[in-house]
Write a structure and sequence with these properties.
The complex is a heterodimer of chains A (138) and B (128). With 138 residues, chain A is α+β, with helices and mostly antiparallel strands. In chain A, 25% of the residues lie in helices and 27% in strands. In chain A, strands 1-2-3-5-4 form a 5-stranded antiparallel sheet. In chain A, a hairpin with a 5-residue loop joins strand 2 and strand 3. In chain A, helix 1 runs antiparallel to helix 2 and helix 2 runs antiparallel to helix 3. Chain A is globular. Chain B is of the alpha/beta class and 128 residues long. In chain B, the strands form 2 sheets. Chain B has a 4-stranded parallel sheet. In chain B, strand 5, helix 4 and strand 6 form a beta-alpha-beta unit. In chain B, helix 2 packs parallel to helix 3. In chain B, 36% of the residues are buried. Classes of the chains: A alpha+beta (138), B alpha/beta (128). At the A-B interface, helix 2 and helix 3 of A face helix 2, helix 3 and helix 4 of B.
């Protein structure tokens, strides 16, 4: 049976720094660098857009982000990241033009390059993001 | 002592090469960021870059040699600083990190081809 690991962090930038050590402790054989950067980008997006958007039920800094993770036998890792903020708006369809540098807006583009799968669902007023990472190259 | 002058560094000479002028030194601000340049650290970095711009400094080197992690919020602070510096006729140049994890965000966003990047602050300062 696959073990499921959980971490809850406050939705603020300082709390996101707990992600890296938790990933390294929980999945010592995974590609920590890719996973930490992807989860950091998602966490920042949630704080800046889900929780600060109008009508969101919580404010960044008081709300939380739940991260659950499980690994398969090949050391691929799947994370679900859940928040109770506002649903994403055009962030899911808008990407920066890689040939036209811009200030900001690269979060999901970075995640898509690091994760083998990325999906979003809106369930019971929550955002549920699922990210899968392949095992590190031998 | 007369040294060869870079016309970019010496705008008085560049503006009118027939007129003898003394060298005009243009200040270069070096900002060193160690450890994490993430969303939390991006805020004080933006303040440092704002202070430089308000002080009329538009040549900036951000030394990330000992940065261990950079996210897109940190990158955005650098990109904003670069945009403003270039609009003012200067530039924001970046010392590449020695840590592959910190360099990753630059390659994923192709900003490694947008910033002038170098191996040391001394070399980047000398490149002006």
């Amino acid at each position: 049976m696959t073990a499921v690991h959980e971490l809850t962090v406050l939705a603020d930038f300082a709390a996101l720094r707990d992600l890296g050590p938790w990933i390294r402790d929980t999945f010592p054989h995974a590609d920590h660098g890719s996973i930490e950067l992807a989860l950091q980008e998602l966490g920042v997006n949630i704080i800046e857009h889900a929780y600060n958007a109008d009508g969101s039920p919580g404010a960044a800094g008081t709300a939380s982000i739940l991260v659950t993770a499980s690994s398969d036998d090949g050391c691929g890792v799947t994370f679900t990241v859940t928040d109770e903020g506002a649903p994403p708006r055009d962030a899911l369809t808008t990407r920066p033009d890689p040939n036209v540098p811009q200030v900001g807006g690269y979060g999901l583009l970075i995640i898509e390059q690091l994760a083998t799968e990325l999906s979003h669902q809106r369930l019971d007023g929550r955002n549920v993001w699922t990210l899968t990472f392949a095992p590190p190259n031998p | 002592m007369s040294e060869p002058t870079d016309p970019v560094v010496n705008p008085a000479t560049a503006a009118n090469a027939d007129v003898e002028t003394s060298d005009v030194s243009i200040p270069i601000r070096t900002i060193r960021v160690e450890g994490r340049l993430d969303a939390l650290r991006a805020q004080p970095l933006r303040a440092e870059l704002d202070a430089a711009a308000e002080g009329g400094i538009n040549r900036i080197v951000v030394d990330l040699a000992d940065a261990t992690f950079v996210d897109s919020a940190g990158l955005a602070a650098l990109a904003q600083g670069m945009k403003r510096a270039r609009q003012a006729g200067g530039d924001l140049r970046v010392v590449a990190s020695q840590h592959v994890e910190a360099q990753r965000v630059f390659t994923l966003t192709r900003f490694d081809q947008v910033f002038v990047m170098g191996e040391s602050a001394e070399r980047l300062v000398a490149s002006w």
